[in-house]
Amino acid sequence: MNSLYILSDYLLMKAYYEAIQIEASEEFIVLLEEEIVRRGIVLSSPNINVQ
Fold first, then answer.
1. Sign of CA dihedral 9, 13, 14, 18
2. Is pLDDT above 90 for 46?
3. Cα 14–16–20 angle (5° rounding)?
4. Which of these, 32, 40, 47, 48, could form a disulfide with 16 (CB 3.0-4.6 Å)?
């Protein structure tokens, strides 16, 4: 995988988590979520224990 795609995915995820932390508008968070899903990135929470 090209390193630019990896960096782009990383920045998208960083923007998503920052938007949640600062309580950005619902519309903005949904746009970020849609792009994350479009790219096939799996969202997970470090607070969820998978058994």
1. positive
2. no
3. 115
4. 32
Say which residue the tokens 């950005």 belong to: 24
> Stretch 1-27: mean pLDDT, rounded?
88
Structure tokens at 5: 């795609």
* Closest C-alpha among 36, 7, 32, 35 to residue 21: 32
Reported as half-sphere exposure (CB side, CA atoms, 13 A), residue 34 has a value of 6
- What angle do helix axes 3-21 and 26-39 make, rounded to 10 degrees? 150
- Rounded CA-CA distance 35/12 in Å is 8
Say how far apart CA 48 and CA 32 lie, in whole Å.
21
